[in-house]
Amino acid sequence: MKTTSYWINKLELIPHPEGGYYRQNYRAKESIAKMALPERFTGDRRFSTAIYFLLDSKNFSSFHCIKQDEVWHFYEGRTLSIHVISPMGEYTKLLLGNNVEEGEEFQVVVEAGSWFAAEIASGEGYALVGCTVAPGFDFDDFELAKKEELSILFPQYSSIIEKLCRN
């Protein structure tokens, strides 16, 4: 039986700052020049990047925000709940999994500029997923939420923010 430890070892995953484990498995060779990108980017970006991402029921992906759209792909394991707060303050819970009869999807998109966090939807176990970002991900485009600041911005979601923020 495959476990969290199995996937960490097999895919050579390392801890991610937001929680969970990851390894970048694709980084486009070509780049987009800063002058061709929207102003929110501070430099050139690769065309696209992709990672493996593993989350288990003992952990969560803390609320964070990036400057690009992010496509999440389900591979194996438990259903993930991805909690999204748009820049306009609209909350959505996306279900990433393989039970389409229960409203789960194999792929979901988190739009650029949204705050989002993820957790195993229920039960014990893990979720092995992938995340693709275009233009490519750079840690300069990543912001980890501060619990108090995010709660001030979106007080109507303070309970989920409290649950899925580390600081």
Secondary structure layout:
Elements: H1 4-10, E1 14-15, E2 21-27, E3 31-32, E4 45-46, E5 49-56, E6 61-66, E7 69-77, E8 80-85, E9 91-96, E10 107-110, E11 115-120, E12 126-134, E13 142-144, H2 147-153, H3 158-163
Antiparallel strand pairs: 1-2, 2-5, 3-4, 5-12, 6-11, 6-13, 7-10, 7-12, 8-9, 8-11
Provide a descriptive summary of the structure in words.
By secondary structure, this protein is mostly beta strands. It has one domain: Jelly Rolls. Helix content is 12%, strand content 42%. The protein has helices spanning 4-10, 147-153, 158-163, and strands at residues 14-15, 21-27, 31-32, 45-46, 49-56, 61-66, 69-77, 80-85, 91-96, 107-110, 115-120, 126-134, 142-144. A hairpin with a 5-residue loop joins strand 1 and strand 2 (21-27). The longest helix is centred in the first third of the chain and has 7 residues, at 4-10. It is globular, with a radius of gyration of 16 Å. 34% of the residues are buried. The mean pLDDT is 96.
